[in-house]
Amino acid sequence: MKFKLIHPLWTHLPAILVFLATIAFTLMSLPLPDPAPVHFDVNGQPNGYGSPWMSTVILLVLSLFFIILSVILDELWARQETRKNFNWMSLFDEITVGDLCAVQIAYVNMLASSTYIFPFPWTTVLPVTIVITALAVALELLRPYRHYEKKLLVEDIGQIKDEMIELKQSGQPLVYWESQNPAYAGMLAVMLPALLFIVAIITWPEMAWLSVLMIFIGLGLALTYGGFRTLVTREAVTVKMGILGIKLLGVKTSDITTAEVHTFAPIKDFGGYGIRFNSEMQAFFLKGDRGVKVSTIEGKKYLIGSDHPERLAAVISAVTS
Amino acid sequence: MLITINDQDPRPVYVQIAGQVKEQIQRGGMKAGDELPSVRELAGSLGINMHTVRHAYSILRDQNLLVFRLGQQAKVARLRSQPAGKKEIATALDRQLDELLTEAFLLGLSADDFRTLVNEKINQRKEHQK
Q: A253 CB near a chain B CB, below 8 Å?
């Protein structure tokens, strides 16, 4: 089956062209002086020397990463659009790549001029970023739109109720299990650590402490691989995360007062996905806009994201009553 | 995925687990790509030995209903798009059908009673899937 992007690649052209132009400009400016100033104080005076390739590679790898990340995130957004929206996140790669590439161009220019003073290059960064962002706004307005038909999985409540009555009466050991492990979470848990490890290797000779910090952050992110898992037994409702099954939530069934299906707006109500808080409750979800709101005798409220909220709510109600 | 262990059920625990997973796949409650709990998680939650769960998962994998690779959660496999061939049906069902018939006749059922019972079960399942 042929794979086709719904959010077309040409909407990322401003960022891609600036990225390619920066590579070309860098190659045309060869050879770069080596060693060269690679670190500057707030006044732009050099205070660290090394190979100019280290910062060049970091800036270019980061730029490429932001372009790829933007292509993926914009595609995920476009695939779930129920009406044509202006996706502000589509400007993410132009803003980041514009900044990074403009800094790289100004840096190479500075090396070529042999006057090693490098105040932050606003005069390069602002025009480059503003022009390519404006182009990206135009392309975002022109991009095609495909309507996403939201399919709501409506569970057979009657059948679930019958099963739950049986469950309540039996008193036998039981476990209900479901997971939320969307593709984007898996990709982030692999790609971000990979990028951090690459940058950590590059920065190791100059800033070992930063490399160690990046390795730790990368390992932490890699441990989230596997998403969220919800487990209901007669004793407790548990939400676990990642490869190691780190426990995010554990509520005894004897402490639960109610469990009800809840529909929410991920961005509006919680500001995104993951482990979230608002004034009313703590939430755990990686996708969708439905889940089960669990209230405890202490008055605490938790929202557990679910692909089968009717079923999950029925099971929790069965083991708590 | 919902799994219960019934102490009154004469079948071994691994057969009960494998049976319930199969039933949920067949009824559409679990779809291709859906993840299953890890062996450790399921065994710990049900208070049973890990080998029992592993045995159940192995049976399901041998029947091409589950896939699991090293370091990954077990997942429901893609279901066949075509009905199984005669040879495969014979391998999978012949012995079990023979045993079932023997049980039925020992319980005193006639061939017609047995047919009626099977038809009732098929109709029940169709009702559930509507």
A: no
CA of A246 to nearest chain B CA: how many angstroms apart? Answer: 12
Global pTM reads 0.64
- pLDDT tens track for A249-266: 999 999 999 999 999 998
CATH number of the domain encompassing residue B35: 1.10.10.10
Number of domains in chain B: 2
Of the candidates B2, B3, B41, which has its C-beta nearest A245's C-beta? Answer: B41
Integer Cα distance of A109 and A119 in angstroms = 13
pLDDT of residue B71: 63
Burial category of A119 from C-beta neighbours within 10 Å (exposed 0-12, middle 13-18, buried 19 and up): middle
Q: Which residues in chain B come in under a pLDDT of 70?
A: 70-72, 81-82, 128-130
Same-domain status, B30 and B69: yes
Q: Say yes or no for a CB contact (<8 Å) between B46 and A175.
A: yes
How does pLDDT run across A127-183, given as a tens digit for each residue? 999 999 999 999 999 998 887 765 544 555 666 777 777 777 777 888 999 999 888
Contact B73 A226 (CB under 8 A): yes
ipTM of the modeled complex: 0.71
Ramachandran sector of residue A245 (left: φ over 0; alpha: ψ -120 to 50; beta: rest): left
User: Is residue B70 domain-shared with residue B101, that is, in the same domain?
Assistant: no
Q: Assess whether B41 and B72 both reside in one domain.
A: yes
Indicate if B54 and B107 belong to the same structural domain.
Answer: no
Residue A231 with chain B: CB contacts under 8 Å? 37, 41, 45
Same domain, B113 and B70: no
Nearest beta carbon to residue A233 from set B45, B73, B128: B45
